[in-house]
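Exam prep: given the inputs below (a chain plus phosphoric acid mono(formamide)ester), describe the expected output before reading on.
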Amino acid sequence: MEKFTSIKDIKNLDEIIQQACDIKINPHADAALGKNKTLGLIFMNPSFRTRLSTQKAAMNLGMNVIVLNISQEGWKLEMQDGAVMNGETVEHVKDAAAILSVYCDVVGVRCFPELKSKEMDYSEQVLNQFLKHCKCPVISLESATLHPLQSLADVLTIKENWNRPHKPKVVLTWAPHIKALPQAVPNSFSEWMIQSDVDFVIAHPEGYELSSEFTEGATITTDQDQALLNADFVYVKNWSSYTNYGEMSLVKEDWLLTPEKMKATNNAKIMHCLPVRRNIELLDELLDGPNSLVYQQAENRIYAAQIVLKQLLK
Ligand code: CP
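Solution:
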């Protein structure tokens, strides 16, 4: 592996998941692999799980970790090649990335979309500039369009909770929210589910279609009740509109998951990447109930990050 920005960087998904399971059983087996190696984590946006789980994974591998919350503590970065920097930006990404590569052996970058221009966000300008100018491997800590470390942890969590001979039915269902959120988590989850041995369904209100680039091969419906029928896993997530880019058009039907709606499922497990706005996006009684996997997903972020770092260090 030379970088990790999407599922396309993984050669064999089953092998990676098995190796992540092995790491979970013995997380310190490779404690010498990262000796005298440095991981640099650059955050342009807030984070709780990604930052801490990736740091923990690096520490399990014996790496040193340096973190910069660049939007708060660093110089404002210029992303345009050839820019005349007579405005607010102080440092060009090509300089920052080149210098990071001197300080670090692996670099992680978190760069959310602005949700103003579809073309700009889906071009992945920020992540691509780091990929272009870093001379060491780059990991996406969630980019404008994808969150691959989250999806790797999610696939691991589903594997851990499924031991029947037939494929599980996995439903990604849109949920209400009070503000516009990126499409990165659902795009990414969809990509990874399509390549997994599952029956995958996406349910969303009209107007909330995701980009077909990431959903080709999924069953897509605007009927949440139909989608939930006999589901084994229900992944709850809000996202803003891709079509009316970044907007949150009014949804008349009630898309909030309830215990009543869950009765149609096969006693399904409930997933969410977190953070979650309780009782807006997902109810307390479901989040705190026996079928919730949300803390297991968060724990598995460590092993997802660790297998990726291990592959890059090798
Ligand atoms: N799920 C996730 O990426 O969490 P953070 O935004 O807190 O890192």
